[in-house]
Design goal:
globular; 7-stranded mixed sheet; 7 strands; alpha/beta; about 45% helix; DNA polymerase, domain 1; single chain; about 325 residues; 2 domains; Rossmann fold; 14 helices
């Protein structure tokens, strides 16, 4: 995989927009919770002063190795850890760090993972039905699909994939499970294509694979918990930036920033405020930041990216 990373340069999504607004103090501590190829981390590190610090987190050992070789040519004021970003507080405690100045999450799948058949993230390549970010986990997509009920699978495909053909797809998957034909990504692909008209198949496949991946990796709950905890560690004036790629994630980030930036949470009919609410955040940009036409032309996978940034009060 490392060789593939070197041969296929990765273009970080919304790089300038993210880094220029994330860094408010070059002497501070910044966390890149989704290190990947190290593109965002490289840009952050280049802006930090020697007393600043970058902490990079990822669950892919190949990404850690590649990013380390990339960052080591710039500076040595960084540390990289093979860990899920949900556990960032452990790293802070280990390094005796009480507060941070910035926190970045790029929630998109890296091209290396998408194109790697062994991970099972893509319907374009045949491979095991894994879909786990943590390769040491024991909750693969194959295991999940061979245990889940049809009713629950319908719910998951609707909730996390927003797929209109959820009932037909879930039924077909369960039928194939019963005869032992749900072990590879192409098994899942065939089940979806069997019941979805050809012109809608690509979108349906993307939604179903997304839904199952989100479920087995517990992505939504982890995102909720991480956002809440990150705000508590931010210095006043520190910022949190999140790049999301589908509407469900973006709605969660949007709602979180909104709920933590409201000055009054009293019911609308109350004549006077009595809630004593203290907002923790202020939104940096009124509107969500999206890639330009040039960005999309250079990196087609950035088309659905949405960047939201908030500052700690």
């Amino acid at each position: 995989m490392i060789q593939r990373m070197r041969e296929s340069p990765h273009i970080p999504v919304l790089l300038k927009e993210t880094v220029s607004q994330l860094i408010t103090d070059p002497k501070g501590v910044y966390i890149d919770g989704t290190l990947g190829f190290g593109g965002h981390s490289e840009a952050i590190l280049q802006r930090l002063e020697p007393t600043g610090m970058l902490i990079g987190l990822d669950l892919n050992p190949n990404a850690i190795s590649f990013a380390n070789s990339r960052l080591s040519t710039i500076s040595d004021n960084y540390v990289l850890h093979l860990i899920n970003f949900k556990s960032f507080s452990k790293i802070l405690f280990q390094n005796n760090i009480r507060n941070i100045q910035g926190f970045l999450l790029d929630l998109g799948l890296s091209s290396a993972l998408i194109d790697q058949p062994d991970y099972g993230f893509s319907y374009r390549n045949n491979g095991p039905l894994d879909m786990q970010f943590d390769r040491n986990g024991n909750n693969s997509a194959e295991k999940y699909l061979n245990q889940v009920s049809e009713v629950e699978l319908i719910r998951i495909i609707k909730l996390y994939g927003e797929e209109p053909n959820a009932k037909k797809i879930a039924y077909e998957i369960i039928q194939r499970v019963k005869i032992g034909k749900m072990k590879t990504t192409f098994d899942l692909k065939d089940a979806v294509c069997r019941v979805v008209p050809e012109r809608f198949q690509n979108k349906a496949l993307a939604r179903v694979f997304q839904a199952i991946r989100i479920k087995i990796n517990n992505e939504i709950e982890i995102l909720h918990r991480t956002l809440k905890l990150a705000v508590e560690f931010l210095n006043t004036g520190g910022r949190i930036a999140v790049i999301s790629y589908h509407s469900l994630e973006d709605r969660i980030v949007k709602a979180f920033f909104k709920s933590n930036s409201i000055k009054c949470i009293c019911p609308p009919k109350f004549p006077l405020c009595s809630c004593n609410s203290n907002p923790k955040l202020k939104k940096i940009s009124k509107k969500v930041i999206i890639p330009s036409h040039i960005d999309v032309k250079e990196n087609s996978r950035s088309r659905s990216a949405r960047l939201r940034i908030a500052e700690r009060l």
